[in-house]
Amino acid sequence: MKSLMIRQCVYYTGILVCFFSITGCKDYLDREPLDAIPNERYWKNTEQLEMAMTAIFSRVKAKNTVDMENMGENTMWPSTNQYKDIGSGVFPVTQPTVNDEWRNMYRDIRESNTFLANYRTAAETSPGANELLAAEVRVLRALAYSFVVSFWGDVPLVLRPLELGDEEVYGERTPREEVVDFILADLDTAAAILSPTIPTGNRLGRINKGAALALKARIALAEGRYDVAEEAAKAVMDLGVYRLYSNGNPATSYWELFTNAGKLANGRNQETILARLHLMDIIMHNLSREIQVPDQSARFVPTRSLVDSYLCTDGLPINKSPMYQDSTYESIFRNRDPRMTQTILVPGDTWGGRYDGRPINENDNPSVFMRPKFNQDGRGCMTTTGYYYKKYVTPSAVGLVGRDDNDIHLIRYAEVLLTYAEARFEQGKLTQEDLDRSINLLRDRVGMVHMDLGFMAANGLDVRTEIRRERRVELALEGQRYFDVRRWKEGERLAAPIEGVKAAWFPELSRGSFRISPEGYLQAQWNRRFEDPKNYLWPIPQPQLDRNPKLGQNPGW
């Protein structure tokens, strides 16, 4: 189905890119050219408002959400990558991505402010239509602010379009708590207006009440406001419109959600609360190819840290379970949480990476993966850790450039359930009933044994650790890991070397230029560091400091 949202993103974004610039300043501070639609001739009717809202929505991170996984320790990008550099702690205040994120987020905030300052002048096509669009814009502005607060802490709280003569352009930063207070209240305002039903038809992919509440729950959890996070998550649960995606087969349901079968347009997905939709030949991305690129190195590869985090099917971690075997590469995938083999490529899986690490035999089927490839010969997909992802991969799209049209999931109901459980625990209120209505629904989908408080106590498992583990494996490759590690104050994880397979499994790793850890594991990156408190915040970008010294710099930078 060609949704209205997708068609508008293509047609209207180009029209409005220059328009929004006339009411604000590029980079939050720079003057923009005035060759755009005059402000007084716009904002006349609901159709124009919808065009403007869609233009803002078109800027929301799509595949770039997955790219941010490279800042955490779940994933390794093989070559130079700015997100990877940020995650490794080795980057300067002049790092371009740091400034780009500032510019892009404040661009979204500026455009949202312009909309909200002008929408009331427009004639409505139906009662309440304009307020509904304004509510969607409030959610988009809150999403942008959630990134700048996480990256920089105290940030300028800008709530109106600014001109160069406004003192606020060169003002100081607003305390983080005050910014968070505002965006949580603004999400409440939006939620009170938005419809609780899942958008369909021409509104497919649009923002609804569930999206406003789910984003509120995410932000409140990140800021340690656990009572607010619990309340917001429970409100989403109580809407009664969301359910975990399932095709009836625990062995494939989780994986299928991230394929074309899980697209919102198919009408079967009642789990995804907020997504960036894609449509063949109109809006596409390149994720499948980047994960299993058939003639180069895989751009996203799982790390040993992620692989080892999956429980065994008895509910115990690998260091406690008698079911765990690591004598061979194949053995580590046996008797594990089924999400492991629905996220990470397993010998025998179909893939798009062509010839794997077996000696090349023209009689072998290159569409079946059996062994990782450690040399780059242009005939197959190389891995720097020995592991590959299958999550988010459509094998038929791997051989093509930029021909993926599966949706990018920004907020799922699964995350809401995880937020509810974590928020309850952090308030000392978690019960087995809470787990059964949240985390155990995720486990039921894949046929995994339940999380049981009595079992964990009997086996010496820390409940907080297990809740965090659950979030890690459920949301792997969805761009959340870096933010979680930082909010948990576990920055030391980001300083550890990135490791891969056990070298003893593959004789070729004992030869050549491979770096092997003292414990016998392939090392893909080792020049990492994390300074506390420095790396819990990003530096204020140097270009922004040059324009406005009143912003000040974050500690350690």
UniProtKB/TrEMBL annotation:
Lineage: Bacteria, Pseudomonadati, Bacteroidota, Sphingobacteriia, Sphingobacteriales
Keyword Signal (UniProt): yes
Annotated SusD-like N-terminal domain residues: 28-221
Domain of life: Bacteria
Residue ranges annotated for the RagB/SusD domain, each copy included: 298-557
Family classification: Belongs to the SusD family.
Stretches assigned to coiled coil: none
Native species: Olivibacter jilunii
Name this polypeptide is given: RagB/SusD family nutrient uptake outer membrane protein
Tagged with keyword Phosphoprotein: no
